[in-house]
Design goal:
- This protein has 11 helices and 6 strands.
- It is an alpha/beta fold.
- The protein has a 6-stranded parallel beta sheet, with helices on both faces.
- Helix 9 links the parallel strand 5 and strand 6.
- Helix 4 crosses helix 5.
Amino acid sequence: MQNELVLLHGWGMNQGVWQLVQPEFEVLYSGEVRSLDLPGFGNSVTCPNPYTLHDAAVLLSDQLKPQSILMGWSLGGLFALYIAKHWPEKVSKVILVASTPFFAEQESWPGIKEKVLAQFKEQLVNHPEKTIERFLAIQAMGSESARDDIKQLKLLLKQYNPPKDEALSGGLGILQNEDLRELFASCPVSIKAVFGRLDALVPYKAITEMAALNAEFEYVILDKASHAPFISHKSEFLSVVKSMF
């Protein structure tokens, strides 16, 4: 029997974001395909408070069958890596989508500028809905049908509950502070990835740094895609991912 494929969404989103590609995954992948809400997002019932990567990952790992393939987009990729390291019996493979073990820019590491993350955090307190809309616009960058993609995404996301405040601020804190580079370098399962060359949140240069950390790491870069290749360049993304299962 094939391992289950589990899809983990990014910050501010919910499992609705995968509904644009989940039907195709169910055709391409011979096992069961399931999308989960990260704790505190969408229809998830429990939300840790304070919101930490470890406590949220515990809740998520409890929902996994043994030897699952975890596909983590953006923030979801950090969860996939963390679970693979701490509960390796639950994970057979990690597929990162526009994700990195460390999102924040440092002198020796390309990432999101501290100022940008700080702005998101500040806006989140005063205008949570506008902040998520701005984030949605970043997801669709590079797509010829960006406006339609965002419209469709909004409709899909609204089918689920809005994210809890502590999950939004906690998730942003994880993006700001969690450094999983060491974990990435010594992950007990195979890690594959799909990136967009035009991604503003995972800079192209970060991919080279990731490859230097883990010699087994395999990845594909979609030249015209940005932070959400499964939305903006769906058919290319699906053909690449098919070979990673």
